[in-house]
Design goal:
The chain contains 12 helices and no strands. It has 243 residues and is mainly alpha-helical.
């Protein structure tokens, strides 16, 4: 298991795609901070809800970490490297477990980078515009650590989805369609149901101040349940299919 984990981490470090995804996540985080911080009036920036959006801009890392998790699996099927991987380690559950562990560490990196950028630059923007911080220390800690936790689970979900679909374009298209169509539409039309989807459960865990969301604790339980369910489905598919 340790050797396989080292192999998976080496693949991630040497894969240009994951680095590009991280750079895109960091860039979009900074863009969000500057748009929110410079386009709003000081009076509006002083409001707690607005500061939660500003300092929580790093939550975009969740989506990008999910994409990174998908590529951890699908890139092997795309380029055929899954065959030598399974020759080296024929126990498929070990390979998937190593990919999940590597994706979790990648999620920590994505979450810490983007949450750190949004929090640090956001605070600097507030100071530059002479706007006092309205959020408490506990609320700010929840934004940072909630975002990191959600990003880790997002990366794990990405691995599970990638293992289920295997086709890289298909898996990414499915995630994009879910995130920007199904998740948004169902929550907007039936929030009592939509808030139990992985996306909205993640929003709750990351401290997003949106009406009708679950509490952060319940959101964490729901998101973990989705992660475990999809991972179990991926294990079953791996055990009963050829590469």
């Amino acid at each position: 298991m340790i050797a396989q984990l080292r192999s998976e981490l080496r693949k991630i470090r040497t894969t240009r795609t994951v680095v590009m995804i991280l750079v895109a996540a960091a860039g979009l985080t900074l863009l969000g901070v500057f748009i929110e911080g410079l386009s709003s009036t000081p009076a509006k920036l002083a409001q707690e809800d607005q500061q939660r959006i500003l300092l929580g801009a790093g939550s975009v890392a969740v989506f990008f970490a999910t994409l990174a998790g998908i590529t951890v699996v699908t890139s092997e099927y795309r380029y055929g490297t899954i065959r030598p991987t399974l020759l080296f380690e024929p126990r498929r559950q070990v390979v998937l477990a190593a990919k999940l562990a590597a994706a979790a560490l990648t999620g920590i990196l994505f979450g810490a980078t983007c949450a750190g950028l949004s929090f640090g630059v956001g605070r600097a923007v507030l100071a530059a515009r002479n706007v006092p911080v309205s959020l408490s220390g506990g609320e700010m800690a929840a934004l940072v650590f909630g975002t990191i936790a959600t990003t880790v689970l997002g990366a794990l979900l990405g691995v599970a989805v990638g293992a289920l679909i295997r086709n890289q374009v298909g898996a990414i298209a499915a995630i994009v369609a879910y995130a920007f169509v199904l998740d948004a539409l169902l929550f907007a039309s039936v929030p009592s149901v939509g808030r139990y989807l992985p996306g909205k459960a993640g929003d709750a865990l990351s401290g997003r101040g949106v009406d009708h969301l679950l509490s952060p604790g319940v959101g964490a339980v729901v998101l973990i349940a989705w992660t475990l369910a999809l991972t179990a489905m991926a294990l079953v598919r791996d055990a009963h299919s050829d590469v």
